[in-house]
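Technical annex B. To support the medicinal chemistry partners, we prepared a structural model of the target in complex with adenosine-5'-diphosphate, based solely on the information shown next.
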Amino acid sequence: MIELINLSKVYGKSNTEVKALNEVNLEINEGEMIAIMGPSGSGKSTLLNILGGLDSPTSGEYLLKNRNVQNMKQKELSKVRNRTFGFVVQSFALIDHYSVFNNVMIPLDYTKLKKADKKEKIRLCLDKVGILDKSKNYPYELSGGQCQRVAIARALVNTPDVILADEPTGNLDKNNGEQIIEIFKELNKAKTTIIIITHDDEVASKCNRVIRLEDGRII
Ligand SMILES: Nc1ncnc2c1ncn2[C@@H]1O[C@H](COP(=O)(O)OP(=O)(O)O)[C@@H](O)[C@H]1O
Ligand SMILES: [Mg+2]
C-alpha cells in the first residue's frame, strides 16, 4: 500500500544541513502493525510526517496505493490525507475548550455528511475506545489515558486506512499505555494498518514488524 524509494529529507541549507532521512527504502502492506524505533533525532517523526503527507521529501519517491504522492496537487493531497490517515500524537493535541464530542467532530467539519450521520459516527468511535460516557466532558476534566482515547476516536472518525501514532503512550503510565495498545490491536484486527513510533520494547513486541532508524537510515 505504501512504498518509499530512496527517499531523503534534508532540513536547512549547506553548512547547517541536517539529513533527517537518508535514502530510505520501505514497503508497508495493508493490515500491518508496525513499530518504528530508534534514538531521539534518528528521523522517526520526520518519516511519520512524510508518510501522512504532512511533510514532503527532498528527494526520492513516495507511492501511496501505486500513486506518486509528489505529483498530487495540494487540494488532492489534503483529500487523500484526510481519507487515508488518522494521526495520534504524544501530547493528544485536543482543543481544551471543545467538549469531547466536538473534538471528535473536527475531522468531519470538512465532509458533506448529514448532521445525524456525523453524530452517529462520533458516538460509534467514542464507544469503540470506551469513552462514550464522557462525550459532554472537556479534555481538562479527563485523565491522560482518557484524553488519548478521545484523540484516537478523533483519528478514527473518518475511517482511515492507516493510523499514524507518534509515541502515543509516551505520556501515559504503564496500565493506560497497555490499554491504548490494546485498542490499536483491536483496530488492526479489523484491518486498519497501524504505524506506531515507540521507545517501549513491550509496545514493539505487540507489533508484527519493527523498523529501526539510526541517523536517518533504516538498519
Ligand atoms: N523542522 C525541522 N527543521 C530543522 N531540523 C529538523 C526539523 N525537524 C526535525 N529536524 C531534525 O531532523 C532530525 C530528525 O528529527 P526527528 O524526525 O524529529 O527525529 P525523532 O522523531 O527520531 O526524534 C533531527 O536532527 C532534528 O533536529
Ligand atoms: Mg520524534
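Notes passed to the chemistry partners:
The beta strands are 2-11, 18-28, 33-37, 59-64, 67-68, 85-89, 162-166, 193-197, 209-214, 217-218.
The CA atoms of residues 7 and 60 lie 4 Å apart.
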